[in-house]
Amino acid sequence: MIITVVGLGVVGGSFVKALKGLDHEVYGVDINEETLARAKAEGCIKEGFVDGHEIIKQSDLTIICLYPSLVLDYIQTHEFKKGSIITDAVGVKSYFLDQAMSIIDKDVEFVSGHPMAGRENKGYDFASKEVFQGANYILIQHPQNKKESIELMEQFVSSLGFHSVKILSPHDHDEIISFTSQLPHAIAVSLINSDSQKYDTGKYIGDSYRDLTRIANINEDLWTELFFTNKTCLLKSIQGFENQLDILKKAVLEEDSETLKKMFIESSKRRKNLEASQK
Amino acid sequence: MIITVVGLGVVGGSFVKALKGLDHEVYGVDINEETLARAKAEGCIKEGFVDGHEIIKQSDLTIICLYPSLVLDYIQTHEFKKGSIITDAVGVKSYFLDQAMSIIDKDVEFVSGHPMAGRENKGYDFASKEVFQGANYILIQHPQNKKESIELMEQFVSSLGFHSVKILSPHDHDEIISFTSQLPHAIAVSLINSDSQKYDTGKYIGDSYRDLTRIANINEDLWTELFFTNKTCLLKSIQGFENQLDILKKAVLEEDSETLKKMFIESSKRRKNLEASQK
Predict the structure, then answer these.
(1) Which residues of chain A have pLDDT under 70?
(2) ipTM, two decimals
(3) From the candidates A122, A163, A195, which should be mutated to test the interface with B, based on the most B CB atoms within 10 A?
(4) Looking at the structure, do residues B106 and B193 belong to the same domain, yes or no?
(5) CA distance A90 to chain B (A)
(6) Cβ B185–A164 below 8 Å, yes or no?
(7) Of A129, A153, A168, the domain-final residue
(8) Which CATH number fits the domain that encloses residue B199?
(9) Helix, strand, coil percent content, chain A, rounded in steps of 5
């Protein structure tokens, strides 16, 4: 296939790196010419383009790795090859996909996807094929999608090293993502921001605080957009978490060891199951 | 020095492993004879004892790595060398230390410590000298402690590879630990327990959920004891966290991007500062 990756940041950059050595003709589009030159020098793309109008017209697959709002702009202002597939890596689907589907040319198919392989650091420098190894991928089944296109994307994504590829409706994607991705980010931000800073905190932490605050380093524009466009699901996930924290708080206050131990046993069981599911 | 480590679990085991090759005569005490045999075979201890009554009487430093309540038992039922130092690795200090100080022989000094190097897995198998490399250590300055003893312990601990050794009062230790260690555990447990389990969660997670739930695998007896004996500080830390989460929730509900972005910028700054402080 002729594949063009639009936006060579940490996700798009990881796509071109993961594609290196596979049997495709890969092009890159980025506003940063230095990034394009590096990707070309590394043998990850055949050629780089600042806009990509011409190469997009010849591409069988276009992977757009831009911010949600820019993905819509890009689709609207570019002409794609007839019969080609476009995909993306946007973290919220319902809100975004209805708009995307309404503006897309009917000869082109948009199969939306979500590589669960974000990094807290931005840019091509932090991109690597390892980012995708063993990670999860979600493909979105929209009523407008053909079965064959979903299957093609499933095979394509598996070839990049993802451990699991699952197919969900836009709504189900947003519901589970509000819990597995957005809630953890809301928690990490609230945790580090609740530090009274009375002590030199860094001297009194272990791996637990390190792990729980890693994603507190967060891209404010992207995540504000993601939170707002998945508001209902996110608020429900936060509420579910708070309910559990309330039970824990009450157990500590009342020194109710039975309840607290039950919670710890349950959470340990769930975490062990989670680890087993990743193998 | 003649050093005896009591309890060769993940922390005690890491002590004997970190001590290997340093200029000390090291003994181990554990109820598990197999563990003692392994530690001896690995050259980490000169000899192992199931109880240790005899070797304790000759030790210049006794490092007790048992559960909080068992540390008190051990101190009460053993006779230590006159002029020797006892230390521990208990995660809560105020409650525990007043009791320990009241039962200890006045010829022996108890310098309490907290290696911030716990692991979610229990036992000697998960012990390693690497656990301590670059980690933080807190020494507790109790009014009964001599300045020289604190200094001796400071040097000793530094020799094991810890990155930072700080001295705090029992109260200050418990206050900062309720935030950097106990609150993250309360959050991780509540997060994983709030999973509705409507989906096969493991297929829809990225590193954020993995990181935030790692410590949800938790020793229920130990952590119930730690939470209850540091109740006041822990409840205050949970409240501070909830206040921040409430601000975030309100900003999402009202689509108040200014407030949300400010929170994200602040959390990113704090996280970057934290990383810088670890170098």
Answers:
(1) 118-120
(2) 0.93
(3) A195
(4) no
(5) 14
(6) no
(7) A168
(8) 1.10.3660.10
(9) 55, 15, 30
